[in-house]
Amino acid sequence: MSNTKEYVRNRADSKITKIVVDRDLCIGAASCIAVSGTTYELDNENKAVVTGADSVDDATLIMSAESCPTRAILLFDKEGKQVFPK
Amino acid sequence: MTSFKHLIIGGGVAGVTAAETIREKDPSATIAVVNDEPHALYSRVMLSKPNFFLGKIPFDQIWMKGEEWYKTNNITFLGGKTVTALDATNKSVTLNDGQIISYEKLLIATGVRTRPWTIPGSNKKGIYSLRTLEDGQAIMNALKGAKNAITIGGGFISFEMADLLNLAGLNTTMILREPFFWQPTLDESSGMMIEQALTKAGVKILKNAEVSEVIGGESVEAVILKDGTKLPCEMIITGIGIVPPPWDWMKAAGVAIKGGILANEYLETNVPDIYTAGDIAEYKDLILEENIQLGNWVNAREQGHIAGLNMFGEKTPFKFVSFYTTQGVGINIAFVGDVGPGADRIIIPRGSPELNSYARILIVGKELVGATLINRTSELTKIQKLIENNVDVSEKYKELSDPNFDLKGLV
Asked: Of B64, B163, B335, which to mutate for an interface test with A (greatest number of A Cβ within 10 Å)?
């Protein structure tokens, strides 16, 4: 089993209801923070954690996941379908 | 003559992010990306990560954009090509295959090159540096047949490569010219923490040491140090800094250059309609109020985005407190903002090596300019905000030096 952490997103204008960070893949490059500093922080293990799941719109959230150089951020909609990576 | 509205030289994360940004803003503009490597965008970051090398991350994870992405987005990809001449007056470039392409807006995002290691014997097989996918693959292949490895240099590459070689089961020795790791960017206490973590993991570190000669036939068999010590090894990885790419064509066209290509806060060079982004850009940093050049993924991506907006016509300054993080051998390290040494800097220690959690806060005048963090990456974003907001911390040294004080209280 991979070491993942899930975060519930609950935003009226959003299709994305879950953010998953794969902590094995995450290397703390923190490009997600550069794109969306209100969504993520690093913890003391140098892994991204979600601290503001609802803070940004879908376009910004997707861009933050796309920016990750190890594809450690996965986004899901309410049907459980993976929105990113496609 | 072929012509594109936006011509981007460089297919790394800066160039491709610029292309993507322009396409989002303008569905019909013609865009081309020229890349010296034949590859679509891949994650250069992953190249130095042990999990990737050791197969824990599937190889295909390296591809950030497939070739189809360029097609889908109607972006012309000219892979395996370099620029040989730039005519800034008539706004055209010549490629190495003789093709001449005219542009309205040009972005130079070529990145930089690894500094070559030039000592007797350094042309032998088994000596690697790390920039391209091919470099990474060559190292992956070499791991299989080697028993003894050496890394040269005291920085991120050497740190990550030593971790990797050690995890791959090789007897690994790191050779540092300096008296401690990452001098002079880090202080001795921080350097010692990193050295202790490496040593504990099994990496041997030789300080104040320098290789004078590489011994062997066609391939590396050993190195001789300046003090006469002979160390057998079958592979050497160098991480000794960067040099500019071939850039005579930029100079000849009148593009102003220092350590990198000089640019203002809009990432515009001195030549009209020519922009720059990424590792090669020496840009005016609005927060630190100085010209800086940085080499990392996050910075390159952000600059590509801003350059793209400016090329499209949405004038946007680049304002970003950059950072870099790495981890390995049970320790993590982050640099935020400007961490360069300088007599004008006041340095406040936060935590201690004994606590295995140690930061150095760098202050110029009344404001933070940077920080180095060891095992304190959770403070990265808070420090970034303190720098970005130019917070006056002249009365807050006590709080900054208290490792248990939540820095959020100062933001």
From this structure: B64
User: In one letter, which amino acid is B340?
Assistant: G
Query: Does residue B303 have a pLDDT over 60?
Result: yes
Place B309 in a pLDDT band, splitting at 50, 70 and 90: very high
Size of interface A-B (CB pairs under 8 A): 76
Partners of residue A67 in chain B, C-beta under 8 Å:
301
For residue B55, tell me if it sits in a domain.
no
Mean pLDDT score of chain B: 95
Interface confidence, given as ipTM, is 0.89
| pLDDT the model gives residue B340 | 85
Q: In chain B, what residues touch A31 (CB-CB under 8 Å)?
A: 297-298, 301
Low-confidence ranges of chain A (pLDDT < 70): 1
Domain count, chain B: 3
Domain that holds residue B32: 2-45+62-112+244-312
Model pLDDT for residues B199-249, shown as the tens digit of each residue: 999 999 999 999 999 999 999 999 999 999 999 999 999 999 999 999 999
Write out chain A residues lying below 8 Å of B325, CB-based: 27-30, 42, 46
Residue at a domain's end among B227, B242, B257: B242
Identify the CATH number of the domain in which residue B270 sits. 3.50.50.60
| Residue A6 near chain B (CB below 8 Å) | no
Whether residue B322 lies inside any domain: the answer is: no
Give the model's pLDDT for residue B50: 85
Whether B251 and B236 map to the same domain: the answer is: no
Query: Nearest-CA neighbor of B297 among A34, A74, A4?
Result: A34
Tell me, yes or no, whether B371 and B231 share the same domain: no
Question: In the predicted model, what is the mean pLDDT of residues B80-98?
Answer: 98
Residues 6+ apart with CB under 8 A from B238: B114, B115, B117, B127, B128, B129, B151, B152, B153
CB-based contact B298 A31, cutoff 8 Å: yes
A60 touches chain B (CB under 8 A): no
Shared domain for B224 and B144, answered yes or no, is yes
Q: Are residues B145 and B233 in the same domain?
A: yes
Residue A82 φ then ψ, to 5°: -75, 120
CATH code for position B406: 3.30.390.30
Give one DSSP letter per residue of A27-70, joined into a string.
Answer: ----HHHHH-TTTEEE-TTS-EEES-TTSS-HHHHHHHHHT-TT
> Which pLDDT value is given to residue B54?
84
Instruction: Give B375's contacts in chain A (Cβ within 8 Å).
Output: 44
